[in-house]
Amino acid sequence: MSTRRTVEYSVSRTPEMGPNRQPVAMPFLPLGVEPEMQGEHMLINIGPQHPATHGVLRIVLELDGETVVKCTPHVGYLHSSFEKLGEYRTWNQIIPLTDRMDYLAPLIYNCAYAMAVEKLMGVEVTERCKVTRVICMELDRIFSHLLWVGTTAIDIGAFTVFLYTFQERERIYDLHEAFTGARVTPSSTRIGGMMADLPAGWIEQLQHFIDTFPRTLDETETLLSNSNLWIGRNRDVGVINGADAIDYGLTGPNLRASGVDYDIRKDRPYYDYDSYDFDVPVGVHGDCYDRYLVRMEEMRQSLRILQQAVDRLPGGAMNVDDPRLILPGKGDAMSDMESMIHHFKVVMEGVKAPPGESWYGIESSKGELGMYVVSDGGSKPVRWRVRGPSFINISTLPKLVEGYMLSDVIAVNASLDIVLGEIDR
Amino acid sequence: MADNIYQRYQEALRALESGPQPGESPAEPRSVAGAPSHPSIVAMQERFGDAVLFWEVQAGDEHVVFIRPERNQEILRWLKEDPAQNYLYLSDVTAVDYGGGRPLQVVYQLWSQTHRRQLRVKAELPLSALEIDSAEPVWKTANWLEREVYDLFGIRFRGHPDLRRIMMPENYAEGHPLRKDFPLRGRFSRAEQTRRALTMETEAFYTPQELTFMHEADDAPAVPPGEVPVAPLAPAPGVESGGGAA
Question: Strand B52-58 vs strand A381-387: parallel, antiparallel, or unpaired?
């Protein structure tokens, strides 16, 4: 007959404190002598405040020795009800909410939302805007993957990588700041265009990044790809096969690591992605190591897309020429009465969308990002729904870790590339 | 002038409180225009007859089909497993509340990689009977997505293996936040919300299974009963020393 007991899990590595803050001598067991558990299971609680959960995720594990028997992720600690808030805001006012979900790839979320609303309104953005948004999305794909490599390496135990990738991220932050004025929450898009045209010298700054970034990427790979520690912690860990990955709804790099060639940029191309020359990396084994390889290669492919987009960036207007959507110029609004009335109406009443709905799925850095907007003809949505890739990816965690060891939970959780702001919304 | 500004301020606040009014929306947003052009809807009609209610095309190229809620699992399973449909991806499960007492819509967003096709399936549930069969036996993805719909809209999914709240705590008593009749700031006053937060039981953060697990551990005697004779007056030494259960 097996009994069960609960054990508190402490991440603190500081020695136990006794009276007068003196460390207490811990009773160490002689090597090779372990207490016999007699089939007892332990219940371990990780998080919500734990550095390896990448936010406020809580995981409850049932362990048999070191083997995970059952894993239950608990989410919702960061729930801010963005979708409810969106129902009380006009279409343009929702944009700042979108980049607070995935603050690791904010421009992708801005663009996805604007694309869904523009589709609902039947607005076709200008060519310059399209290419600019492609640049934004690919830049933030690199931005997000760089953070993933850095933090995952820290979780696994390799600290140096973090310094390399964050130095590069800083340069993308600078690009964000030069374009939008904000580093983390740029709120860059507007319905029908972007918040502003690209500033002078921005493309040159981006070109410099494209030229110099591959060197850092190579250095990062030399630090990890052949490292014994990295391979030992990642290979054959958290394996999921292609059919299961589809059934569990994995998308993005996590799905492609399992050998399924599904990339929305190729399969449902938007913004002329079919005219860019790039490859979709696909893994074989579906383990953590393949997820790493896929992401590293995706960064190289994103660089290729960026280069092509920079080369083809056309001149002309950034915003659509549609007075229903776009504010008049400041000079006009200050000198011309009609322009001022127009400015007032767009700001105070908001842009109106026709009754109907649209669902726009794009390939974000973490998987399929779906934006579902429902309008009843007013200036506010009836329903704004975000199909977040991280939410689905983290729901597969039990499937991925059950049967593996406790330390693998950290590696698998890191390999899924989650962001809690978007899981909890 | 001051009155005017005051009035506008009041109106703005009222508008913020009440949100979009149901009266603003069109009466019945549904259309049946000729024969369906989506091959899956045509096949669905042939196979399921009057279980397919009507269809519409949204935003130019998005095909939406409304089905009878009683037969949703059967139809969804067919959509996934029929080789001519093969919707292996369930992208999304969500719900839409138009407000004004109108039925809630459960929305399934599907994608077939084999045929490069998208389809949106909807089932309408009257507010008096918010229950529908779960899609979890068909796609594992539906597990958390349906939990979210249950939490935020209050729709119950029959046959769901683990239907619990997901965003809100398990003992959240204010209702289902994404329903139109739910006020933006919640049903309870700030004072009441704070009081509830402060008196919240930590057990609310564990699943029922985990709680049974822990209570079993608490109640379990350190020595299995029957092996050691329990003498009420002079307990055996083994019972005394292992009495962690108390």
Answer: unpaired
